[in-house]
Amino acid sequence: MARVIVDVMLKPEILDPQGQAIARALPRLGFSGVSEVRQGKRFEIELDGPADETALAEVRKMAETLLANTVIEDYSVRVEG
Amino acid sequence: MSAARVGVVTFPGTLDDQDAAKAVHLVGAQAVPLWHADHDLKGVDAVFLPGGFSYGDYLRCGAISRFAPLMDELIPAARAGLPVLGTCNGFQILCEAHLLPGALTRNASLHYVCRDQPLRVEQNATAWTSAFGQGQEIVLPIKHGEGRYVASADTIAELEATGRVALRYVGNPNGSTNDIAGITNEAGNVVGIMPHPEHAVEELVGAPSTDGLGFFTSILKKLVNA
User: Where is the active site (chain B) (predicted)?
Assistant: First the structure.
């Protein structure tokens, strides 16, 4: 059994108002030195078998088909070791 | 002659299907309920994808709905020329299904916007906007939290150059690129808009106008003349 992590982020050129709101809140809470925040999604995919190349190709397909909207979002896939 | 039959789709979480059916009825067409879990378009002549929060907007608005069994039938039919209008969540579904380019995401203000919205009809050569004059200004209700239209610069340029921006906000409520409120596919049969024509068909209920009727009379005219 293996766990694969898919991170989905808005493409850099797409405005992220949620990230901006978080960035604006931080100084009010006493956190300084933050120039930008962007918010994304993390998916934890538990596989029945090992995270071999075939399984990872399937996860990439899932990301492409459903987890991310590749019109506005980028995704990355990694195995949690 | 039998009445034109306009399908109105209901997903779990759809809100505006009853108003849509009423609007279809008001212009003299027959509203045919379509259920998300059926592989059946019931031979309708056109389809209205109403607003709401289909599948709870889980993951992204419209992301789960586009894989509903009914969509397996609707997507190829729309590509083959079946007239389809998606409003609000329906527009989001059409984008997720890649029947229309681009995507709708969180309003720039982060606020849910609910108001009467002035709009300009930018393209009346579509199945759903032919009853309007080119450039006509209308008022329709809007109510959405994720209505900011975004697409790649190339896509926006192509939409603008080919006259595929169907509806534009007069006073941008959500940060949409180029004030875009609605677009059409190349053939003009698939149209997606954020405002709600189905809520602006009767003065009795306090609608800001009856401008919404134009979308329904447009499709009726097309079907009757077909």
Answer: 88, 196, 198
Q: How far apart are CA B130 and CA B195, in angstroms?
A: 17
B199 is catalytic: no
Total length of chain B = 226
Active site residue B144: no
Q: Phi-psi category of B152—alpha, beta or left, where left has phi over 0 and alpha has psi -120 to 50?
A: beta
Compute the count of residue pairs across chains A and B with CB atoms less than 8 Å apart. Answer: 33
Nearest partner of A41 among A74, A8, A68, judged by Cα: A8
ipTM of the complex: 0.87
The domains of chain B, with CATH numbers, are 5-225 (3.40.50.880)
Beta bridge partners of B77: none
Q: Cβ contacts (< 8 Å) between A71 and chain B: which residues?
A: 95, 101-103, 151-152
Instruction: Set out the domains of chain A in order of their start, with CATH numbers.
Output: 2-80 (3.30.1280.10)
A66 with B63: CB under 8 angstroms? yes
List CB contacts of A35: < 8 A, sequence separation 6 or more.
none
- The amino acid that residue B65 corresponds to is S
DSSP output for B155-178: HHHHHHHTT-EEEEESS-SS--GG
Query: Mean pLDDT, chain A, as a whole number?
Result: 96
Q: What's the mean pLDDT in B4-26?
A: 97
Q: Which of B10, B53, B20, B73 is nearest to B201 (CA)?
A: B20
Other C-beta atoms within 10 Å of B54: how many? Answer: 28
Residues B47 and B81: their CA atoms lie apart, in Å, by 11
Q: Six-digit token pair at A42?
A: 């993390």
The per-residue pLDDT for range B18-59, each reduced to its tens digit, is: 999 999 999 999 999 999 999 999 999 999 999 999 999 999
DSSP letter at A64 equals: I
